[in-house]
Amino acid sequence: MKRLSFLTICLVLAGIGVSGCEQSARMDKLKEGLRPETQEQRDARMAWWRDAKFGMFIHWGVYSVPAGEWKGTIYPGISEWIMSHAMIPIEEYETLPPRFNPVGFDAEQWVQMAKNAGVKYIVITSKHHDGFAMYDSKISDYDIVDSTGYGKDILKALSRECEKAGIRFCTYYSILDWHHRSQEPRQVEIDEDEEDNWEMYGMNQMKPGRKEDYREYMKAQLSEIISQYDPGVLWFDGGWVEWWNYEDGRDLQKYIRTLKPDIIHNNRIGIDEDLNEDYGTPEQDIPPGGLDYDWETCMTMNDSWGYKRSDSNWKPTKVLIFNLIDIASKGGNFLLNVGPTDKGLIPEPSVQRLKEMGAWLKVNGEAIYGTSPWRKRKEGPTDISFINSYEGDYADFVEPEYTAADIAFTSKGDTVYAIFLHWANEKVLVKSLGTQSIGDRRVESVSMLGIDDDLKWEQRRDGLVVSFPGKKPCKYAYVIKIQLRGE
Ligand code: FHN
Question: How far away, in angstroms, is 296 Cα from ligand 1 center?
Fold first, then answer.
């Protein structure tokens, strides 16, 4: 990207009549190295990410060796936190990398699986809280190439395959680091009744006078990651610790933006919204009304992010597809997680679900990718969120009774996608598309994605009446595509 000089930008801002006050605020940002973007520039930078809608999160590290179990005890909670849950000292945890040998890892196969699932970007843990790097870091030996028997750089292999497959490669990076020499566990009283006593590691401490050392280390690793794998997104995490502050976040933001001006990063680089981060990251949650800024829900398919042998609380495929529809109707992205095993295999229940999502998206992807929320998010008595807000054991899951009146909407220009959450054996009425609701706008054509035959339809005052075809084009949810005309 061509870089404008500071003087040029001052002259341009003066020329387009920005008020003195606004101008000086923008100048301040410029001087600080924050991104001085117009809305158009931001839209252009964010375009691929907004259109993508569906991404795959990969939590993979040496924690997949114990897979949630330490010295015969199965620890509750997420497996990538085993070091914290089992309060494992660094030297003991360091025995894991030599045991990590993912001989079954096949980058091409993983990326093909993601592609067939309809995934448009992949975000993989380059370094999680345990501090272990999943690529060949030159400034540390605590990485997959230098410390494991496997000895190969999986980020390199995956980023190459992603490039070939047209999938954006992105990386997760934890600010919190349980292995780095600068940090140490917090001395907290252990509560035997508490399940995880997470504060000891989760709110670890920076040793006096060591922060600069660590900031340099992070920058060096991020520079390696950016220059070697060219990630579209840097997905930060773990910046909640007391020793990481606004200034640190801002400094890191400036650094990565200097290295790659069009980089996108999530909102966990710091703790202050003023940092003008690129998007929000609701975790295991779909905001009821969406958010009024860019956002992405990240979610597990079972309960743990990293591979956990004992975790079989898998969400049904239908829940995952309904999540994707719900999120798209509210203008967000869905980042769905897989936790590969220490042998380099993606667990079969995840593979199965991704395959089914891919089959659904192959027919209905047009109603998801590149769409925006329509003027109405949904109609019908049973909210799609009922299925999404379930927090219990999926063995006891009772699905709400959806009917053909339950519809979610997305849109693209003059096209509206009415996504039916239930099959209709007869005529349906889409109330939101009656002339009473959309005024002068007229329906021009109506079809069902995945069905070639014309559908019978009639636009009335009280709604659009559509006759469903005789056969289903797919499972789970069915999309009626409506072309509108008129102002
Ligand atoms: O502590 C992590 C957790 O292990 C996982 O990586 C998730 C993913 O969003 N983020 C943190 C918790 O917010």
Answer: 14
